[in-house]
Amino acid sequence: MANVAVATANKPAWVDLATKDPDAAREFYRKVFGWDVEVNPDPQYGGYGLARVGGKDVAGIGGTQSPEQPTAWSFYIATDDAEKLGKAAEAAGGKVIAPAFDVGDQGRMIVLQDPSGAFISAWQATKMGGFQTQGTNAFGWAELNARGLEKALPFYQKVFGWTLKRTNDPAMPYTEFQVDGKSVAGALEIPPMVPAEVPSYWLVYFEVDDVDRSHKTALANGARETVAPTDFPGGRFSMVIDPQGAPFGILKTAQR
């Protein structure tokens, strides 16, 4: 893992994929986003690979840790103190799913669950700070899809100090989480038509130059479409599920 500057506390720091077939996943994302994935040879990292764009770290891909663990993307927020964050999460009505632990000499991580049931991780950096770049073919956005959004929002306000910016459109209620007046993530209530067995979750989006082209490339390489390329006030997006079962979004943000 690379030696990089420490990420800013309470802002997105990293995303990584836990998958039952890391080799196939690395090849899929290489074709879709042009990622060059380097697997760490040190056994303590369990075959974890760093995905890079132009030589800069953008995401991680590794194997699941148990047969029960689903294939999924995880979203990390930077923190200066993982243990303190865990206590704050419990005080705010959440749960600590995996108490803070060392990841080699790279940093410490903790896995939390908000009151709506969605999982979110946090990263306390030492050697590895997180994203080295964002933008094209890298992290673009993350979105909380919640069952009971109103009980989840105070959790994020208390734990990460996020403020809320809400839309006024009743047809499409949306909340943006902000740090110092800048939006860092979004949130919405899971629509009623989504099957009840789908739990609350965080969805990671990757920014691209052309949503339609990247979407077609993903489908051609075994992904399943969940939302076709669609315009929205902030740009254009689509959603797919990769061949191993991990949902993610494809995003082109409109120029502001």
Describe the structure.
The protein has an eight-stranded mixed beta sheet with strand order 2-3-4-1-5-8-7-6, covered by helices on one side. The protein has an eight-stranded mixed beta sheet with strand order 10-11-12-9-13-16-15-14. Helix 1 runs antiparallel to helix 4. The chain is 17% helix and 43% strand. The chain has helices at 22-33, 82-91, 149-160, 211-220, and strands at residues 12-19, 36-39, 49-53, 56-63, 72-78, 95-103, 107-113, 119-125, 138-146, 163-166, 175-179, 182-189, 201-207, 224-232, 235-241, 247-253. By secondary structure, it is α+β, with helices and mostly antiparallel strands. Residues 1-6 have low confidence and may be disordered. The protein has four helices and 16 strands. It is globular, with a radius of gyration of 17 Å.
Task: Write a compact overview of the structure shown.
The protein is 17% helix and 43% strand.
Key attributes of the depicted protein:
alpha+beta, 256 residues, disordered N terminus, 8-stranded mixed β-sheet
Compile the SSE list and pairings.
Elements: E1 12-19, H1 22-33, E2 36-39, E3 49-53, E4 56-63, E5 72-78, H2 82-91, E6 95-103, E7 107-113, E8 119-125, E9 138-146, H3 149-160, E10 163-166, E11 175-179, E12 182-189, E13 201-207, H4 211-220, E14 224-232, E15 235-241, E16 247-253
Parallel strand pairs: 1-4, 5-8, 9-12, 13-16
Antiparallel strand pairs: 1-5, 2-3, 3-4, 6-7, 7-8, 9-13, 10-11, 11-12, 14-15, 15-16
Helix pairs in contact: 1-4
